[in-house]
Automatic annotation (TrEMBL):
It comes from the Bacteria. Pfam families: cNMP_binding (PF00027), HTH_Crp_2 (PF13545). Residues 161-234 form the HTH crp-type domain. The lineage of its organism: Bacteria, Pseudomonadati, Pseudomonadota, Gammaproteobacteria, Pseudomonadales. One of its GO terms (molecular function) is DNA-binding transcription factor activity. This is Crp/Fnr family transcriptional regulator. Keywords: DNA-binding, Transcription, Transcription regulation. InterPro entries: cNMP-bd_dom (IPR000595), cNMP-bd_dom_sf (IPR018490), Env_Response_Regulators (IPR050397), HTH_CRP (IPR012318), RmlC-like_jellyroll (IPR014710), Tscrpt_reg_HTH_Crp-type_CS (IPR018335), WH-like_DNA-bd_sf (IPR036388), WH_DNA-bd_sf (IPR036390). One of its GO terms (cellular component) is cytosol.
């Protein structure tokens, strides 16, 4: 697929960081009202990507991180042997590219799962601003720490959990992340296809379908296509805590 240039809206049509509905999740969380204008000067808003379009590609020069504003993004890596592994799914308010922060090139690729918009955060400008606003620097350290934890959790997920536990963990993770966005935690849309879920969890697509069907028969989840209509959060948590699963 050839790389396309993302469409850009005028910044005049894009609200500032201070007025963004995701300000309680993203960088403005760490910036006072008095410094918000300085952050606005750094962040480039308005880039829109169609489904399948790359925000950045593996091994290209690292220049910016990106905050997801709408839609959803997946990240992936490809080995020298040609193996392809999805490493994460990102929702509005979350930042992609942090794993490349101290590298000269992107460690992986970021692809839009659906029509999505992002805010570009040029790292040279943000680093300069972070020295002037200590709370912003501290917040970025927290984001990097969370990225490390996410990597560790993925390794643990793929190394010792059953297919049922892996699916339950993913659904519970999405549930809690949607809840943080003040959206229903038990009814939401899956932005990714089942083959992406299978790749991310290290399972066969048939296994993913079989486990989701089992969850429905057990009353743990009702899923039609990509629509999660209901989740039994307590039941899914109990599944993770049950010995021998």
């Amino acid at each position: 697929m050839g790389e396309r240039i993302p469409t850009r809206h005028s910044l005049a049509l894009s609200p500032s960081c201070n007025h963004c509905s995701l300000s309680n999740l993203c960088l403005p969380l760490a910036v006072s009202d008095g410094d918000m204008g300085r952050l606005d000067e750094v962040v480039n808003r308005g880039a829109v990507y169609d489904r399948g379009q790359a925000i950045f590609q593996q091994h290209t020069p690292f220049r910016s991180c990106y905050a997801v504003r709408s839609g959803a993004i997946k990240t992936s890596v490809e080995t020298a042997e040609g193996d392809y592994q999805i490493t994460g799914f990102y929702l509005p308010g979350e930042i992609i590219g942090l794993d490349s922060l101290h590298a000269e090139e992107y460690a992986g690729s970021a692809i839009a799962l659906e029509r999505s918009s992002v805010c570009e955060i040029p790292m040279d400008q943000l680093e300069s601003l972070s020295f002037e606003i200590p709370t912003l620097q501290h917040h970025f350290f927290q984001l990097m720490s969370q990225e490390i934890q996410n990597g560790q959790q993925l390794s643990l997920l793929l190394s010792r959990k059953t297919a049922e536990e892996r699916l339950a963990s993913l659904l519970l993770s999405l549930s809690s992340r949607y809840e943080r966005r003040q959206m229903p935690p038990t009814a939401f849309r899956l932005p990714m296809a089942r083959n992406d879920i299978a790749n991310f969890l290290g399972l066969a697509v048939e296994t993913v379908s079989r486990v989701l069907t089992r969850f429905q028969s057990q009353g743990l989840a009702t899923i039609n296509g990509r629509s999660v209509e209901s989740l039994d959060l307590e039941g899914l948590h109990s599944l993770l805590q049950s010995p021998g699963t």
